[in-house]
Amino acid sequence: MAERASLSLEHLTFSFGKVDAVNDFSLEVQPGSFTTLLGPSGCGKTTLLRLISGFLEPAQGCVKINGIDQKGIAPDRRKVGMVFQDYALFPHLTVEQNLLYGLKIQKKPKDEAYALIHQTARLLGIANLLERYPHELSGGQQQRVALGRALVLKPLILLMDEPLSSLDAKLRALVREELQDIQRDFGITTVYVTHDQEEALSLSDSIAVINHGVLQQTGTPQNVYFRPANKFVADFVGRANFIEQGGGIKMVRPEWMVLREIGDGHADDSRAATDSTLCLPGTVISFAFLGESIRYRVKCEAVTGGIAVVDMRTSTGDAIPAGSSVILSVQNSYDL
Q1: For residues 103 and 114, what is the distance between their CA atoms, to the nearest angstrom?
Q2: Topology of domain 7-234, per CATH?
Q3: 335 in Cβ contact with 250 (< 8 Å)
Q4: Strand, helix or coil at 130?
Q5: What is the pTM of this model?
Q6: Between residues 256 and 269, which one has the greater pLDDT?
């Protein structure tokens, strides 16, 4: 079990020339938590990791680990572990030698180093892979080795920069679950970078949504998804429809709408709906069968941009055909 360290980012500012990569960024990361930095490419996520690790120094602000300002402390003295996007495993070294590399640099006694390696390998389920080389491993196995190489150094903070991006969709989902279990077993404070909203929602205790180097919102996955701070967060974290009404904007998630074809026995839906249900006329443009749901694109003038996205759960696979006139019943909404 790792020490549950706290991490504080206080008013961090950093620029590449005239480009502001991080702008007055503050964030409190709770001890032992899994916090995800989520945002589009180029928003400053990786720059923040480099500021935390010490590979960059902020122009303003500070990084504190357990309340201690890290200014002037070299990366190898910060007790911060890093898992890179491409894993950065040494191809000419075995798994055991890869795990040993950082411990040799730290001049850890041989017996202690090998004990750490074998303990970590058992916890990660890679004890039977120690004699293999990276090219003999699957993507998920390589990911666990990269994670192990960071964990054997007993870091206070673990940083992960899009470590699942090179995996196929099915393996990514599997490794994601394993990663969550590993992080909880070790209890290590983790900061994870991704632009994948599903990944962030499923993994995180807390999500920090970033745009152009500025923190837009931080909170639990549920809070960020159901109660976004602004239109950017609503649109970036999951899919969202926007309806302007009464001088304000309502966010409507695709699963918060029910679609009924006019003429299927529900032609009077708009009359039968309660006063609290917003009913909008539209025309189905297309649909996509996603297994447990069908996603419709519906032409609807009441929705910003003129096209609504609606997710309907289905048990039969039957879909409303393109070109059909429909009523969109809004079951829930959130005022931005």
Answers
A1: 9
A2: Rossmann fold (3.40.50)
A3: yes
A4: coil
A5: 0.85
A6: 256
